[in-house]
């Protein structure tokens, strides 16, 4: 993409508003493109909250973990299906969210897409882990079963969490492998 093409793709009013805020023009253009010219506010939020993070976005290796609710005593096939739901759900959530998470997913994928399956004690334990992950700003996805096979409808089967290993380990580092 040439500089001329980039310039034509951004809203000039929004661009000027961003430059007036002290954002370098090149960065303002990038922020507008990433946020699809929604508004100067959206682009400014992107610039100040996401674009200012290190280029690699993850200075350490990233991983995705799955915490299985072992209280439910799911069979191997059911458990595998629920972990798959958790993986797809978290991945979709992250690709629908901020550009930062999409970049983290790309780095994670380039590093081999590390995935770990862990034991969660019960529903309450899963919710505590989810809350801890949310406090750390880690993306997470909680699977609630439809209730068509082995567990009751609405049962929380698997929690997936992603982020830099050091941060994810703050939430799940003391859990055993499944």
UniProtKB/TrEMBL annotation:
Record keywords: Hydrolase
Molecular function, one GO term: peptidyl-tRNA hydrolase activity
UniProt keyword annotation of Transmembrane present: no
Record-linked SUPFAM superfamilies: Peptidyl-tRNA hydrolase II, UBA-like
EC number: 3.1.1.29
Pfam families given in the database record: PTH2, UBA_7
Domain UBA intervals: 11-51
Catalyzed reactions per annotation: an N-acyl-L-alpha-aminoacyl-tRNA + H2O = an N-acyl-L-amino acid + a tRNA + H(+)
Coiled-coil annotated residue ranges, if any: none
GO cellular component: cytosol
Alphabetical list of NCBIfam families matching this protein: arch_pth2 (TIGR00283)
Family of this protein: Belongs to the PTH2 family.
Protein name per UniProt: peptidyl-tRNA hydrolase
Organism field: Callorhinchus milii (Ghost shark)
